[in-house]
Specification:
With 152 residues, this protein is of the alpha/beta class. The protein is built from 4 helices and 6 strands. A hairpin with a 2-residue loop joins strand 3 and strand 4 (42-43).
């Protein structure tokens, strides 16, 4: 699968949902895109395939959970397995990036703009996951700004 130069998809993996964001190396920007269901520890691979077919990213970025003391979070192993499956299934470069506090920052962004939805609603949780994926992708883009467009 050949990707569109400068287009990236970012993922915030969770036990129930995966937030997905779209990023562009040209502008260094990202935006929330979708939420993908996880059932019985399996991502909805059909939905992920649809997103990849629609956006044709050149690379994928997956948030790797870390603890504040730099130890790996218990979700790190499932995230690494998800990232490995992405690479095997789609043959695209997959980059792992520390996602420490991305969900916390996503909640702050939602609160700053007035929130809207009840914090425990499914829609609110999906929005949080999408924004966390956006933050993960923004972090990766900021870290790689000097090599924008050369993710291969």
């Amino acid at each position: 699968m050949r990707g569109t130069p400068g287009t990236l998809l970012g993922f915030d993996y969770g036990k129930k949902r995966i937030g997905v964001a779209l990023g562009l190396t040209l502008t260094g920007s990202a935006r929330p895109l979708a939420s993908v269901a996880v059932r019985d520890e399996q991502a909805d691979w059909a939905q992920i395939a649809e997103l990849l077919a629609a956006w044709r990213p050149e690379a994928l970025v997956v948030g790797l959970p870390q603890r504040m003391d730099d130890r790996e979070h218990e979700m790190a192993a499932p995230v690494r397995a998800f990232a490995a499956q992405l690479q095997r299934r789609y043959g695209l470069p997959v980059h792992l990036i520390d996602e420490r506090l991305s969900s916390h920052e996503a909640a702050q962004r939602i609160a700053l703009r007035g929130g809207g939805k009840a914090p425990r609603s499914r829609a609110a949780k999906e929005e949080l996951d999408r924004i966390a994926a956006q933050i993960i992708l923004e972090s990766w883009l900021a870290d790689h700004a000097h090599t924008a467009g050369t993710t291969r």
